[in-house]
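Good day; I would like, with your permission, to put a structural problem before you. The record follows directly beneath this note:
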Amino acid sequence: MSAASHCFFGIAYVLYFLSAIGYAANLIARGKDRSRSVFFAAALGFASHTAALILHGLVEGHAPFTTLFESASFLAWALVLIFLVVDRSYGLSSLGALAMSMAFLIIFAASTLPPNGHDPLVAKNHSLKIHIAMSLLGYASLGMAFCAAVIYLLQERRLKSKKFAFGWKLLSLEDADVLANRLAAVGFALLTMGLITGFIFAAREWKGFWLVDPKVITSMAAWSVYVAYLYTRDVCGWRGRRTMLLLIVGFIAVLTGYIGVNAADVGRHAYRPRLFGSAVT
């Protein structure tokens, strides 16, 4: 099963790459819209990725997001899942160039990491499993909100200059704004659940003043940015560029916590002493 898992992972890797190129080409090409055929390639890659996650989990005997490799792979899988649902439901294929490129870059990074080794604590602690799963799903939804925000800014610039390189297949400003808000709301809810379950675990298992852990600080910073986004948009009535910039800043904060802290290998979330273990979200 291990060989089959690697095979399915490789197929997903290739199809995500081809889908990213296909969506980008369709975005800027004039003439017939070929997004449906590219959607099929992305969906096939997602199915292969799903098989890889299941087989890998069966081989390793734990949830498919325990190691740093697995968490990155699961994040790419979740990002593609959300994109496929959005594209299928609303026909917003112009997000594909960014979403599939992001998924490919994540799965590429995952392919460079050791696939084995896990923290036994995850296997027996359900709140920790929920914490990791909710956090990664939240990151994926917020990543899609980031893509919608970038599309909004590109479309705004194109409409103002009338000389922007990308063609007419971008989302309208209204569609991009509404979609970004919905994705941000879902991502914020998932991120909040991830933080709450993480705090429950930390309060029970960790000693000392764990609130100053670098991952906790960056996670709370990202969460605060999204609170500011939701407040300014839904209460203060902000729309347009300012809210889109908040979504971009928020996702940069998410990436700082997920990539930066893990790369620095510091704090209680350091993965090296835990064999690429549970604290990777």
Observations:
- The first helix runs from residue 2 to 28.
- The CA atoms of residues 119 and 185 lie 31 Å apart.
- The mean pLDDT is 82.
